Amino acid sequence: MTAAPYNYSYIFKYIIIGDMGVGKSCLLHQFTEKKFMADCPHTIGVEFGTRIMEVNGQKVKLQIWDTAGQERFRAVTRSYYRGAAGALMVYDITRRSTYNHLSSWLTDARNLTNPNTVIILIGNKADLEAQRDVTYEEAKQFAEENGLLFLEASAKTGENVEEAFLEAAKRIYQNIQDGSLDLNAAESGVQHKPSVPQGGRLSSDTQPAKEGCSC
Amino acid sequence: MDQSVAIQETLATEEDCITSDRGHFETLVKAAVRTWHHKVAAFCFICVIVCACSVRLFIYTHRRMAITADDVSLEDIFPVSRHFEVVEVSSPDELAILGADTRIRVSFQEEVLEVSLPFGSHSRFFLGELNKAWSDVCKSSSHVPKFEWLHKHSKTTGGQAVIKQSLTPLGAKMTKLSKQTGLSQRLHTPDAVAHSPAHQGTRAGPEIAARAVQNEWERYGTCLGEGGAGREDRNDMVRSSSHTPANKAQMLSIPQFGLRDNLIRCELLKNEDQYTHLQDFSFFLATYNVNGQAPKESLAPWLSCSSSPPDVYCVGFQELDLSKEAFFFNDTPREPEWMRAVSEALHPDAKYALVKLVRLVGIMLMFYVKREHAGFISEVEAETVGTGIMGRMGNKGAVAIRFRFHNTDVCVVSSHLAAHIEEFERRNQDYRDICSRLQFRLLDPGCPPLAIMKHNVVLWLGDLNYRISDLDVDHVKNLITKKDFETLHNYDQLKRQMDEEAVFEGFVEGDIQFQPTYKYDTGSDDWDTSEKCRAPAWCDRILWRGKNIKQSTYQSHMTLKTSDHKPVSSLLQIGIKVVNEEAYKKKFEEIVRCIDKMENECIPSVTLSRRELHFQDVKYMEHQTESLTLFNDGQVPCQFEFIQKLDEPTYSKPWLTANPPKGFLAQGAQVDIDLEVFVNRSTAPDLNIGLEHIEDILVLHLERGKDYFLSVSGNYLASCYGTPISTLCQLREPIRDMPLPAVRALTKGGESPEGGDKPLGIPKEIWMMVDHLFRNAIKQEDLFQQPGLRSEFQEIRDYLDTGVPDSLPGSNHSVAEALLLFLESLPEPVVPYSFYQQCLDCYASATQSKKVISMLPQCHKNVFDYLAAFLRELLKNSDHNNLDVNILATIFAALLLRSPTKQDLAEKRKTQEFFQHFLVQDLS
Ligand SMILES: Nc1nc2c(ncn2[C@@H]2O[C@H](COP(=O)(O)OP(=O)(O)OP(=O)(O)O)[C@@H](O)[C@H]2O)c(=O)[nH]1
Ligand SMILES: [Mg+2]
User: Fold this and answer.
1) Is residue A62 part of a domain?
2) B409: pLDDT confidence band, cut at 50, 70 and 90?
3) Residue range(s) defining the domain that contains residue A126
């Protein structure tokens, strides 16, 4: 047995973004607690949860930030994108408007995270097939055009929830393995070795020591 | 302050206090040996004391600042030995607070003490030293700390004067101790110790005084009598796992001592029965004192006597080689010879793998398993301990192998204890030495060394050398002939010593149905006929300790004649904890998930009484406050703070402040936070024209936790205050009667949008105030010197902004102040910023100064002239209003000639001199 067989060796920071009411908080809750919250209040702020997962045989601690989806908080929630290794971009398959807004969310995600941040598109509320307003195919196409991972999931039944987080983690892990993700970069969103989760100031994210990142 | 000096004074010269720390007692967790409740939360010093090679932790209470030895008194001593443990724990209350005390739990056998050490590097250093000392002790398995030196702490007399004097408080206690000696001695005896937790628990106060030292005696006793029966039968890890969920999570975030790992390990251990089931395996145990002989005959009759092949073989030998070479160089050809002999004699119906062989001079142990079980054997370690000549050499002693079989930890010992009939005490001592000195060092450096008794199953075999006493040889032989082994057994020293719990506590031996295995004439079944003619004895024995063990056979093997001993064997059926992989995985996931969950629950959290705050009709220079309540509904205390958003310099807009902006909130506590709006001259201009709104989102951040957004909204009532002169000149109506876009257009464009009306010469607001003062206050004493009333200012402001009521309200002083505030609020001063430098350049010349003023924009020039004229009028009445040129220049220059940057004193003078030119009466 190795010295620390149960411990995690990586921390990945995730953010969950998307319009209000698409089920971001429910996805997080389902992922961390395996429960569905039927009447989840709007998130007015940023919450976070953690869970340790096994990714390709490695224990990885996911530190997930769930942001407020309401438009009026948009400017503030932008502060939280920085340093995310993964972004879950969520829409509601029963509300087309939430799908239509994806491009603006995607713009934010691309502008405010680093180029290696793995973005996964999630069509939530897949359990409400009867009320479907966005087809799987068109969303799949959107994801492909933009180089996103894609899954339809349900925070209610739990379907694909685990997978969504895992798929992103696998991709991140793969990026680490093939060297395209530089762990030393301050904004990689990945920490090697366990360390204290940093709630930190929004603005005091560690500055890259060397090259100024102008992304 | 370093208390080490005071403490060092209490110590003898050879004792050295390496480090000490100040702390206070928390709770005493299950202080089985005694209660210390009178000391709860008392302050203490905790010191690492070294003497020779042994290390102790001394606990002192103290008074004052502990300047001299008189101020400290020794309360307790924890030997830093293998039974000692110090772990860091944290209470939920201290969670998430950086700078919280470090709480440690010190334990020694049944005793547990929790002490809080102050946050900081000193405590870190202290713990570091303590850990170092502890691991040093654990590493030197050959080294037994000698505790004798401590005895002087228990003596009232003797020792240096220093000690006596310095231990005055303790000295008093010692007197009582001497009366207690009887008790403490009795406590040594097994039956008293056996019930110690309950027994000790009932002991009352008066004895407390004597305890510190008495405990020391007890510990010393139990330490030697390793594996005292008083010990609860559980693993250390389980013991250290009794934390609350909250502090488990706390530990997770601070990777220390591999806590998360330990936590999972303990949880797994605690729930072992949920994923393991017992399965019987047969263990064939065998022991043979071969008297230095080489193998001469097949061992099959001894080792293959069971009908079916056993799962495990543990075969022990003693006196494998009696030569000097073996003794001095621990090297012997006998080892391979006997190994081969054993391997060939194992049960023919199965294939066996030799997992481990360990030998110390003539004491050897071999451990075989059936091939198919080999994969379930792990963590195999072997150790040896010599107890022979000089208490060290390997002519006597033990060898041991530990291993994990499925999920059960097994330790097998083969020992050869001291010889001679009268030496049974010596044998007991050998046993205790073996127990305390034989420690397995595990691969994982984080794990403390493992003693024999920490194993689930201990199998002990060997030539224990206990004899039959108090019976003459003939009597013995007679009983043997009659096969009355039961009677004979009553004279067996081992049985007697075990009955007295002087040795092999907790061990079981099966009924002996075979004749003594010692001493025969070699090559025969005849009792010793040599000169010494030794009485027969059951020297060779097999014992076990642990649960779920049944003995199937226990026998000697008379057919083997190589030695003066007969070999002995025993077949045990041992219930081994076999892991159900499925259930294990499930349990493991469950525990990990549970720890994740605890971690999530321990994320600080609060509820806010409101998330939206509305400020209705905010006015210039008028405070408005809205409150909200923060309630800590989380499982941990939290630290909150309003934090700034990305790229913003402050946590809120400049017109908004939160009070308090940060703070600490205990669990279940609440705090009211006031959000206060105040619009001043720097924030008013943009609000007046709707460029800025009463709107903001505050981010309330919890340290290591969530962020909450607070929405602030409201409306601002436009005011002439903070509106440019040029705009006001275009407004014939009060500003509040004008549509906001119109005002904005005026301010931005500067030109009248309506085009029709000619702009006013000066803002009507200035005219109203000045005219009012001119008519009512020209002789007002101390005008512009005495402050107005705030409430009247608000009325005046409202009047200027709305035209209601009909006339300007307020006292002369209030109007005067309102005028000053107005001038101050102008976004562009009466002398615009761009003219400021010119004014400074020509302040010395009246004509030049006048020239500069003549170049001002028309409305500004008008205001300037108007005010100057008014002030000159005031000066005409200086007898009444006490004003003079100096006073007015000082007041008004600061308002009319404002610097676009910071103004220094010299500049200020120049502006005043500049303005004075305009206050001189005959200028025009
Ligand atoms: N049927 C169904 N309802 C869901 C699902 N996920 C979320 N909901 C419901 O959708 C509503 C909104 O879910 P939230 O998780 O609060 O949405 P959100 O994205 O966090 O919203 P904001 O916090 O306002 O940004 C809740 O009433 C949920 O019960 C789902 O998978 N299926
Ligand atoms: Mg939400």
Assistant:
1) yes
2) very high
3) 5-191
Calculate the average pLDDT of chain B.
79
Residue nearest to atom 9 of ligand 1 (CA): A23
Which of A123-132, A182-191, B687-696 comes out lowest in average pLDDT?
A: A182-191
Q: Which two tokens stand for residue A198?
A: 């940093």
pTM (2 d.p.): 0.59
Q: Is the CB of A25 under 6 A from ligand 1?
A: yes
B568 shares a domain with B443: yes
Distance from CA of A99 to the nearest CA of B (A): 25
Buried b (16+ CB within 10 A) or exposed e, A78-117: bbbbbbbbbbbbbbbbbbeebbebbeebbebbbebbbebb
Low-confidence winner among A176-185, B280-289, B680-689 (lowest mean pLDDT) = A176-185
CATH number, domain of B363, equals: 3.60.10.10
As a whole number of angstroms, the distance between CA B234 and CA A130 comes to 58
| Position B794 in a domain | yes
* Sequence-distant (≥ 6) Cβ neighbours of residue B447 within 8 angstroms: none
A196 touches chain B (CB under 8 A): yes
Residue A58: which CATH number?
3.40.50.300
pLDDT in tens, A152-203: 999 999 999 999 999 999 999 999 888 777 776 667 777 775 433 333 333 3
Domain boundary among B663, B696, B716: B716
| Among B residues 576-635, those touching chain A with beta carbons less than 8 Å apart | 592-593, 596-597, 599-600, 603, 611
Give the minimum alpha-carbon distance from A61 to chain B in angstroms, rounded to a whole number.
Answer: 9
Residue B372 lies in a domain: yes
Residue-wise pLDDT tens digits, B413-429: 999 999 999 999 999 99
Query: Are B53 and B200 in a shared domain?
Result: yes
ipTM: 0.84
Residues B58 and B199 in one domain: yes
**Using a 6 Å cutoff on CB, does residue A68 contact ligand 1?**
yes
Is A93 touching ligand 1 by the criterion CB < 6 Å? no
Tell me the C-alpha distance between A131 and B533, whole Å: 101
Give the structural domain span for B794.
Answer: 759-920
Count: domains in chain A: 1
